[in-house]
Amino acid sequence: MHPTYKRMLAGLKKKKRASRRKKPGDRQSMNACPLAQKNFAQKKDRGKWSLYILKCRDGSFYTGITNDLERRLKMHQAGKASRYTRTRGPVEMLYSETCGDRSSALIRECEVKEWPKEKKAALITEEQEKHKT
């Protein structure tokens, strides 16, 4: 696994452990503040996270995650989302899957990014075949 992904996954595990150690009284302070409640509700309502695969102009694949597929695709098309797609645009959305929370999406992204191009192509083809029938 790529060292960057290892560090990212280690950070997610550390964050998860820290959230388990919170004391029950920690939430009470948030309940006392209406602004904190509003911010918490907004974060909670952001929707499900998705993994997506784009095909770039040069035939390469780009894998990423987002909680708003339409917005993210527009950003990629406009050259505002990532350096990789900015230099290889325009892009086409080939595949997406819902992952639930951000942590699950990041873990799935790390997994898919490690795959060779042929395995990603097989995943995309399999998904397209499901939609044809």
Folded structure, characterized:
Strands 2-1-3 form a three-stranded antiparallel sheet, sandwiched between helices. 60% of the residues lie in helices and 17% in strands. With 133 residues, it is α+β, with helices and mostly antiparallel strands. The chain contains seven helices and three strands, in the order H-H-H-E-E-H-H-E-H-H. The two termini are 36 Å apart. The protein has a domain at 48-133: 3-Layer(aba) Sandwich (GIY-YIG endonuclease). The longest helix is centred in the N-terminal third of the chain and has 18 residues, at 3-20. It is globular and about 45 Å long. Helix 1 runs antiparallel to helix 6 (102-113).
Which properties best describe this structure?
60% helix; GIY-YIG endonuclease; 3 strands; 133 residues; alpha+beta
Short recap of the structure:
The protein contains seven helices and three strands. It is of the alpha+beta class. The longest helix has 18 residues, at 3-20.
Alpha carbon gyration radius: 18 Å
Order of helices and strands: HHHEEHHEHH
In whole angstroms, the N-to-C terminal distance is 36 Å
Tally the helices. 7
Name the CATH superfamily classification of one domain.
Answer: GIY-YIG endonuclease
Q: Please name the CATH architecture of one domain.
A: 3-Layer(aba) Sandwich
- Output the strand order for the largest sheet: 2-1-3
The helix-and-strand class reads alpha+beta
In CATH terms, what is the fold-level topology of one domain? Answer: GIY-YIG endonuclease
Integer average pLDDT: 82
Largest sheet, strands/sense/barrel: 3 strands, antiparallel
**Strands, total number:** 3
Shape: globular
Helix content: 55-70%
Q: Into which percentage range does the β-strand content fall?
A: 15-25%
Q: What CATH first level of one domain would be assigned?
A: Alpha Beta
- Poorly predicted tracts of residues: none
